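re: ur msg from earlier - yeah i can do the zinc ion complex, just paste it... oh wait u already did. ok heres what im feeding in:
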Amino acid sequence: MPECLFCRIIAQEIPAEIIYEDEQAVAFRDINPQAPVHVLVVPRRHLPNLGAAQAEDEDLVGHLCAVAAELARRERIAKSGYRLVANVGPDAGESVHHLHFHLLGGRRLTWPPG
Ligand code: AMP
Ligand code: ZN
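and the outut:
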């Protein structure tokens, strides 16, 4: 799916600061960071968003969350705290239609979110 921005990043057709890769997942820094740590954790396989995940994708989604938790430790925000966000649909502001979790931390995050 070459027209998908994140598929192109995963294929290394578009540069990104990739900080983690395994067989199922890739993580890279957000180009427009909203916090000192802002990493996107994505599946290698194209899935439009969390709402498109099927029962057989549960292990993959769990793996993405586990990778995010590991990256929070590596980025040294595990103790201070962090947020894991998946924007789904227009009200959430989903703009790239390839499933991704935002890992945000390194500053106090407000709640409720905007
Ligand atoms: P969302 O709005 O949840 O779909 O998030 C998409 C995210 O992708 C935004 O935070 C963008 O800043 C980020 N983004 C867009 N293009 C790139 C890129 N080329 N490299 C890294 N992050 C990007
Ligand atoms: Zn894609």
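cool cool. Residues 5, 14, 16, 28, 30-32, 40, 87, 93-96 surround adenosine monophosphate (ligand 1) (CB under 6 Å). ping me if u need the other ligands too
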